[in-house]
Every structure is written in C-alpha cells, then in structure tokens.
Specification:
This protein is of the alpha+beta class and 344 residues long. It is built from nine helices and nine strands. A hairpin with a 4-residue loop joins β2 and β3. Pfam families: IQ, zf-RING_UBOX.
C-alpha cells in the first residue's frame, strides 16, 4: 500500500510539473509576441556584411610550407608574399601591357565576366584556365614566362572593360535607332532634291492623302455629281460675264479717251521688244525732208491704254497658248483687252 501511494504521489507531482511548464511556456510566448502589420510591401533583408563583388584579394594569403629539400637548402625557398604596394606595381605593369584587353593566352577567349587572376609576373589568365594548366602540368609555372612559385591575385579589370564595351555597344545601337527613326521621319516630311526621287515622294504623298481622305469621308455619288454640276454652272456664268464684258465694242469716244490716257503715260518704247514706237522722239528726217521712222511696224492701242507694236503683240498672242481670243491678257496689267491699230 505504501508503494502504491508513493507511485501515485510521484505521478501527481509529474503532472503538476508538466502543467507548470505549459503555463510558463504560454506566458513566455504571450510576452514575446508582437503585433505585425501587413502593409503589402516586400521587406528586404539588409545584410551589413555583404562583400564587394569587385574586391581584389590574394588567393594564397599564407606562404606554402617548406619542403624537406628547401629546408636542407637544396632548393630555393619560395619568395616572400608581395605587399599591397608591390601588387599595385604589378597591376600597373599589366595595365601598361594591355593584358586585360587581350584574350586569355590559354583559351584565346575574351575575359568577359568570368573570374580573372593576376600573377606576380604581371600576366593575366582565366582562373579556371590557370587551374586546369596547373593540374595538367603538375607544377606551378607561368604559362608565358615560365616563372616558378608565382603568387596569384583575383582582379576584375577584364569584367569592367567588358561592361564598358557592352554599355558602349548598347548606346551605339540606341543612337543608331534614334538616328534611323529621325532620318525616316525626315524622309517622310522633307522632299529630296533629285528630280526622280522628288516626283516619287510627291506621288506617295498624294496617294497617302487621297487614301486618308477616302477612308475618312463617306462619299455620296449623287451628292458629289450634284455639287460638280453646281460648280460647273457657276463657272459658266462667270465665263459668260467675262465674255460679255470683253465682247462689248468700244465707241470712238471711248477710244479717244483711252488714247489721251496713253499720251499721258508718255510711252516711247514698245514694252515687248524695247524698241522706239513710231511717232516718238526717236524718228528723224532724211535729206529729202521726208519723215521716216526707225521701224515700219504699226502701233496698236489696247483698251487698257497700253501701246505696243502690232507685230510684237501678235507674236505674244501666238506664244500664249493657254489664252484664246477674246481672252488675251495685257502683258503689263494682265487684263482682257480690245485693240485698235493706230496710224501715224
């Protein structure tokens, strides 16, 4: 009985301890919980220990252990590690040689963004290429100058040059695109100087404008024909008025007034051939006292009071193919005229 009581008391104590532990855990969780507000924005983890991807570093910061032959003096020990100033001099010598601008001497490919190493002898290789060369030759010698026990440093000169080249190429392509677009817009707006190209340019323009008008305008054939008939009627009425005005015969009194206006103009030369008119001050008398003119051409007076040689005016009327009588225009005032031949 005593044993059973002891077991039951142990079980009760164990259950009490479990309940106490649960309560303490719940209290600790309640104390550590914090209200979180979901703003919908992605939270970025800020790692203060992010290393610079273009940082340069030495691959073997510690010298290799001496071999037994080197300890006994049979072989020379490896040279001491280069300082930062010495590495800077080695890098400047490599830059002057232009090693990063040339392909890798092992694989003959550009460095681009692949890891790149600088040796203490100022030669530059791909890191993977140098590791493969060391594994193949089973010794640590420079592939170019055969220097033993070199030191290696990771650099990023080739990657920077490749990024600059890519940026330059992108800018060149973009500038070319902008210039080509500008040139296409210029060709669409400015006509060329060559006659054939200029004709083709205006043909394309007229075709484009016509197509645009046809697409934007719903043509009613009957309305179009009625509008054409109306325009033709208006033109016929205007031409009829012009013909009536030009076909109106002038009287002798009208011609006298027009001749007086012509005399007031004091015209002594024909405006077409620029030679003196008969009756002007350029005529003279010969030895027999007969009055002769420098020209035997007749003079014609127009209803606009301008005076010409008759032959000159006839030649001009024949030359004006677009005009037809009685719609000839005066060479000076461009008005329709009636003419009268004057006798001197």
């Amino acid at each position: 009985m005593s044993k059973n009581k002891g077991h039951s008391s142990k079980r009760a104590d164990h259950s009490k301890t479990k309940a106490q532990k649960r309560e303490s855990r719940s209290k600790s969780l309640k104390g550590n919980t914090k209200a979180i507000i979901d703003t919908g924005l992605k939270t970025t983890l800020q790692d203060p220990k992010v290393e610079d991807p273009e940082k340069e570093y030495v691959l073997d910061p510690k010298p290799p252990p001496l071999t037994l032959a080197q300890k006994l003096g049979l072989f020379e020990p490896p040279p001491p590690l280069l300082s930062s100033d010495e590495w800077e001099k080695v890098k400047q010598r490599s830059i002057l040689q232009g090693d990063s601008m040339q392909p890798c001497p092992i694989c003959k490919e550009e460095f681009e963004l692949r890891p790149q190493v600088l040796l203490s002898c100022s030669h530059v290789f791909h890191r993977a290429c140098l590791q493969a060369f060391e594994k193949f030759t089973n010794k640590k010698t420079c592939p170019l100058c055969r220097r033993n026990q070199y030191q290696t440093r990771v650099i990023h000169d080739g990657a920077r040059l490749f990024k600059t080249k890519c940026a330059t190429r992108i800018q060149a392509y973009w500038r070319g695109h902008v210039v080509r677009k500008w040139y296409q817009d210029l060709r669409r707006t400015v006509p060329p100087t060559d006659a054939k190209l200029r004709r083709k340019f205006f043909e394309e323009k007229f075709t484009e404008i016509s197509h645009r008008i046809l697409c934007s305008y719903n043509t009613d054939i009957e309305e179009l024909f009625s509008e054409i008939d109306h325009c033709l009627a208006i033109n016929r009425s205007i031409l009829q008025q012009l013909e009536d005005r030009c076909s109106h015969e002038l009287t002798e009194e009208d011609w006298e007034k027009i001749q007086i206006q012509a005399l007031h103009r004091e015209t002594y030369e024909c405006p077409i051939c620029l030679t003196p008119l008969p009756g002007s001050g350029d005529s003279h008398q010969d030895a027999s006292g007969m009055r002769c003119s420098q020209t035997s051409r007749e003079t014609v007076l127009l209803s606009c009071s301008h005076v010409f040689h008759h032959t000159c005016l006839l030649a001009l009327e024949e030359f004006s193919l677009g005009d037809c009588s009685p719609f000839h225009a005066c060479p000076l005032c461009r008005s329709c005229y009636q003419k009268k031949i004057l006798g001197y």
